[in-house]
Structure formats: structure tokens, C-alpha cells
Amino acid sequence: MSPPDTLLLLLAALAIEAALGYPKGLYARIGHPVTWLGALIAALDDSLNRETASYAARKAAGLAALVILLCATIAFASTVTRLCLALGPLGLLPLALLASTLLAQRSLYEHVADVAEGLEQGGLSKGRKAVAMIVGRNPESLDEAGVSRAAIESLAENFSDGVVAPAFWLGLAGLPGCALYKAINTADSMIGHKTPRHLAFGWAAARLDDLVNLPASRLTALLLIAAAALDREADAAGAWKAVRRDAHRHRSPNAGWPEAAMAGALGLRLAGPRIYGETRVEDGWMGDGRAEATAADIRRALRLYRGACLMLWALAAAGVALLATV
Hints:
Blueprint: H1 3-20, H2 24-30, H3 33-48, H4 55-85, H5 92-100, H6 105-131, H7 144-191, H8 203-229, H9 236-246, H10 256-266, E1 270-271, E2 274-276, E3 279-281, E4 285-286, H11 295-325
Antiparallel strand pairs: 1-4, 2-3
Helix pairs in contact: 1-5, 1-7, 1-11, 3-4, 3-7, 4-7, 6-7, 6-11, 7-8, 7-10, 7-11, 8-9, 8-10, 8-11, 9-10
């Protein structure tokens, strides 16, 4: 597919996902593309990650597992693309439907909104229950401000990982590019941890995930800053300042960019020390505002997120229009 076609595919996929999401009934029947990728990754982990092997051997096995995953993904996505394009212009619709399953605009909004609603209607216990669905940290260690910050941080980081990054690779390389990104990102989420089992085996997946997320994390920060400039209750200058000052302080080479932009735009402090399970993780603060976030701040973050999504749509549309005149 040529760049105008991939950008048109991106616009169609964004619109379908925003309108429909991924139907729960369909998920119950056949699962989701990410769960299919997860099943393959789990099988590779079980068969290739041998605890009796040396560090170097497990590192090589993890690289082999990643290559197998990526080869299977590109073969499937390329075949589907060829079959759809064989239908002519009408093939764009089934291709966009498939691509929409790899985006998460609607589901991310709904999950984060559930946290705000839980705090507003059920208090801290309901807020903790809702936030446990989207973050890995220990919810029992969180007060209301901690729950609110966790939800906003998840919104910012997953806007990059779950929306902008797959959209970027979809617009650049069509369904194969987007599917490859999701395979890498899913592998990182499953095996890219510094645990005894996955420190060596997941090394390649973690490093490649850092690389493929690099452009989208920067773009996400810019989208949030642009959205803040059009939001009367947000601070675009504060977002820009926070990104320049704080993004590099985050333990992740990419997550600090959207989190710093969100923090600066809302006048909050995000990230900082957190507890995952029983482990305390020391991290730099993003932003220099107040740490006492509330459910109202989650609502503000969701409004900023909607604006940034519209900015992403506008950017894709501008790309289509520009390339159509070339």
C-alpha cells in the first residue's frame, strides 16, 4: 500500500474503533488479536525459556522466540492485506475493520472513566477495584490521590502505547506494520521484565519495544501539548516545560514523554515512587504541580485525551490531503 492508502486506512480504522470499539460478544467467542499474540508468546516462553540454561543461551532463545513471533505476524498480516486488496477499493473496509482491533481509543477511555466513576460513586474501594484493571501496582497501597494519579498516568502512557504507536505504524506501513508493533509491544508486556525468569529471555523484546515506541512517545507528547493549547482548563506552556525538564527522568525511555506532558498540562505531579506488588519502584516525578489528584482531575485528563485523539485524526487527514496533491 502507498502512503496515501495507509493514511486513509488509518483514518477509517480510527473512526471504526472510536464508534464501535471491540464488541464484548466477539471477544467472548474468538478472543482478540492481542490474546492470539499472547498465546503464541506464552507457548514460545514455555518451550524455549529453560531455567537450566545459561544466561547467554536464554538470551539467544529469547531472540529466537522474538524472530518466530515477528515472522508469524508479518506472514499473517501480509496475507490478509493481499486478500483484502484483491477485492479492489471495497477491500479497504474489511482491512480497516481488522486494523481497528489493534487500536484502543475507546477502550482506554472507558477503562479510565470507570476509575473516575468508581471514586465518585463508590469511594476509595470502588476506585481501587477499577484502577486494578489497568495498572500493575498494588491498589491497596493507594489512597484516593494515588488511585487518581495511577489512572491519569495509565491514560497518558497507554495513549502512546495503545493508540498513537499502533496508529503511527499503521499509517507508515499498513496492517503489517501495525501488527508487528502490537506483537513487539505484547511481547514486552509479557516477557520484557527484569525478573529471574525473563531478564535474559525477554531482553530482545524489551529493547525492541523501546525502539519502536520512541517516535510515538514524542508524537504523543506533542499531541497532548497541542490539545492543551485548545483547552481552557489546560496549560500548554506548562506541558511543554514539563516535557523538556522531566521526560528524561522517567525510568522508561518513552513513558516519561506523555506522562510529563499530561502532568504539566493539568498542573499535577505524576509518576514518582510507586509500589508494584511488594516492590517499591523509585522513579522521577513528572511535573511540578500538586500530587493530590482527584476524580475531577481524571475527568480533566479524559477531556484532554479526547482533544489529543482529535489532533491525531486531523494529522492523519492532513497527511492524506497533502499526499493526494503530490
